[in-house]
Amino acid sequence: MKIAFSRMTVSWLILITMLISILVFPIPQSSASSTGTAANTEADSLIDQNSLTATLDNSYDQYLEQYKNEERPSGEIVIQGADYTNANEMKPEIVNELGGLAGDFVKTGESGSISWELDVPKSGLYHIAVRYFPIEGKSSAIERELLIDGVLPFSSAKNLSFHRVWKNESEQIAKDNRSNELRPRQIELPMWQESLLRDTEGYYEEPYMFHFSAGKHKLTLVSSREPMAIDYIKLFQYEMPAAYEEVKAGYDTKGYKETSGHLIKVQGENASYKSSPTLYPIPDRSSPSTEPYDVSKIRMNTIGGNNWRLPGQWISWEIEAPEDGLYRIALKSRQELLRGIYSTRSLWIDGEIPFKEMMQIPFHYDSDWQMNVLGNEEEPYLFYLTKGKHELKFEVSLGAVAPLIRQVEASVLEINAMYRKILMITGNVPDPHRDYQLNKQIPDMVEVFKKQSDILYGVSEELVRLTGEKSDKTAVLNKTAYQLADLAAKPETVQKRLNQFKINVGSVGAWLLEVREQPLEIDYLILASSDKKLPKANSSLGKKMVHEVSSFFTSFFEDYNTIGNTAEDEESITVWIGTGRDQAQVLKAMIDDTFTPLSGISVNLKLVNQDVLLRASLAGEGPDVGMQVGNDVPVNFGMRNAAEDLTKFPDYETVIKQFRESATVPYQFEGEVFGLPEQQIFNMLFYRKDILEELNLDPPQTWEDVYALIPVLQKNHMDFALPLAQSTGVPVLEANRAFAMMLYQMDGSFYLNDGAKSGLDTEIGLSAFKKWTDFYTSYKLPLIFDFPMRFRTGEMPIGIQDYTFYNYLTVSAPEIKGLWEFVPVPGLQQSDGTIRRDVASSGTSTIMLKGAKNKDAAWEFMKWWVSKDAQVRYGREMEGLMGAAARYPTANIEAIKELPWPARDYKNLEEQWQWVQGVPEVPGGYFTGRHLDNALREVINNGTNTADALYDYVQEIDYEIMEKRNEFKLDGQD
User: Which of 306-310, 432-436, 659-663 has the lowest mean pLDDT?
Assistant: First the structure.
């Protein structure tokens, strides 16, 4: 008994000792691996603030701080563009006449670099201006990177923009045959411009200053996008405008007098020039006071709105002063989109800001139209104009909000960096009952939380001071600041609140997007003498009531589904489009000014939900042509004898040469083709350059590289993203693109015997399936995730997504601009050393319905629509209309070259496109995607052998294919 008691006592003592050791010295990792534990005990050993610090140290603020005591020498240094010293990967061209001017100018390309040498007589800070002429390109803004002596002076000098100039194609706004005004097409009007180098994002009001020491220097412009010609580059001192009081005193000194009896009105839609094709006239039917007005018809009577919101965008109007003298300027405007903050504009008159106050003109939130007279609380400002024509240009500015946005953006970067450090220790799903002692493992965590909390509280208070009110904009900042302060006070609770912390930081990221946008809608501008009474901005209550009642009754008689002109003659066709009204209006404008005049065929374009296309066709009410339909539609319609075989047309082979062979694969069946490709979308590899650099990783080239990369990511509680098929809200679950990528790279196929049997149960199919499922079973990749958010926070710094994700990041993730890139996907290395990078594609198409009354006319329309010229124009106009978020993924090989992709990105896109394969559509093929997903989940959830799981579901796929083939009598059975 004594021995037994002694053993029991020793056992209890050992157990108690182990418990005490765990409580006193908590294990820093849930992993049992001693290597992993050692590697993650000190988070700073792998990922620290180095990248963030480098980013902040290379900011313009740091650059100015570094040279704050430097002089600002007077005088100008002018470098002629034609005197360039060398060029790299570019072939500059000297021209002697351009844009109506004679001289020596240098044309620079959309890629490569060009350099000049200059001699600076005195050290100091200089502004730089470039006189340029936009060369015809892809209709997007020109972008350059500036290097001084081969070095980037600060990070934002990597993104310098030079605007093109746009105007309405016609001075008169055209109407359709139903008396609705049509949106005027925007055309480029190239002209010589002098542009100061300034912040593209609008974060700095004053133009950039660059430091040059005395002596010789080399100035280099690296082309990122679009060609341009350069007359000269000038180093000088830009003088900021004087205050109004000083300018007003000058009026008295010079004897300027106020005018009398003049009121000149200029309609907003009659703008002379714009910086972007998105700034076209827009209709407003919400108020009877808008000019011109019609109760039921569309009138293009305002300009701006949500399209006119990005810093740097400008609109100019020409206005004629009847005599020399002082005038007031007023705008009938509406800012109904940005609540809790005001929208800001700066005013330029004949190329100059008249006085300092015009750099920041506030337009406060109001749902009604306002008559805004430019002035302060005491009096309206007076502007001196000579008799004759003058240009008034209003430019989007961030104004007093700019420094606040800079502070918040820096805070988001620092908070995200800290979030990643915490994740390295706790993982994505931390144990809420465990004390990770984060304040000891990350010594600066509490300090960072306190500092960022103070910053966000300070920004919120300043925002209240500027706007005079608390709002949802300040609530987001206060909520995050409060949580940061509370986490600093209670660091032991961080792991329990990590998810809410991530949500709050995401909300601050969304705040950045919202506050950067400064929308404003303008009905008209007024130039008036002080003695003239200005018109009221809004109508009387009686007029508003009449307007509302009349609008209600006329809605019963107006056809809002038909876009533009309608026709009922024999040479007319009906076309249905289901994507959106903006797309339909752009297409209708193209039809009316290009297709119909060239072909003599009228088109009735209707905006219709594509879900009713088959039912309408069977009922004899369908269109002649259906546009922008999914990849599954053409063959499904064709096998039901509802779509026309396009190979019957004699020039089909010529038309189809415009596309890659893979683009037409989904529309082919039994030797017939039922659709022409419109869009072709495929996967690319997206990665965060900053995070991979921190981890000393390169973008993976092969799957072996991916296998080596995943453990490094997971050791730091990050993940690799494989694409997942969307399983909700879609009628047909497409075959998973990650599996398709592996299947095609191994030279497999989805179907055998011309679509009569599934090809997934072959040796290659089983191998690809095992390789795919191993990522989830062996490497534990997540099945459900929000890749856009995780990519922005850095939790998923690398992943495979379709290339339209590029559009999202360009527009919606400004905080990581320049920190990410996309490249071809990893592939399978071949025996000769090459890498096979096959990917599957999806897309949309246009089809001709079997019941089309005039098939030849319908075919002419389809040919025109998928042609290079039509696709380029549609792509450019959609991007002009909706911004970079709407960049069009055309399937036309030549058209995509003309869309505004930066040269480097297009090169990567083109490289991947060569490996794209189409996924065939077969009867019963809708079971393939569904059961492929079922087999994956069977393996993951139940641990079923991969071969057994896939075999079971392939039998279901084969059975459905056989049933459908019998239904459509495809095997010769009755």
Answer: 432-436
